[in-house]
Amino acid sequence: MNNALTFLVATLIDLYLIVVLLRVWMQLVKADYFNPVSQFVVKATQPVVGVLRKIIPAAGRLDTASLVFAILIGMLKAAALSSLNGYGFAIVPVVITGVLFTLSSLLSMLFWILIIRAILSWFSQGYNPMEAMLHQLTEPMLAPVRRIVPPIGGLDLSVLIVIIALQFLRLLIGV
Predict the structure, then answer these.
(1) Which terminus of the chain has a lower count of CB atoms within 10 Å, N or C?
(2) pTM value?
(3) Domain boundaries, position 66
């Protein structure tokens, strides 16, 4: 029973954390605000981010209010899992683990966005709002790699290289 509850709590928190991190990433890459995916993300996060923006100003293109909210959600996950597993509640481990959970979720989100974009590229049949959004979200990561490793024989290895780098980083942080 405890494992099932832990799984459910972690999954629900992770899903919302990914939506908040997607908002941060969309702001950084200047994704199309009017895309249906963007509209969903903004509407799902606006109640809290709107309040936080009144307190926490943006730092250039970085949506610091959304980033702080994401870290708070990561800390909530750390506290909830600690509580559900019967561990004591200490603020420093919760903060550190929360930041690591947030970073791990960001890397995981980017990994899955790359995977979905690669799969969709095989079946692309013209313009699709979801595919356009995935292109906007991934191109800032892929373009620098393409400058170093150009397509070889028509095969673009940049997605594979970035996926390996993301997985390496996830293993480094160990969450």
Answers:
(1) N
(2) 0.90
(3) 2-173
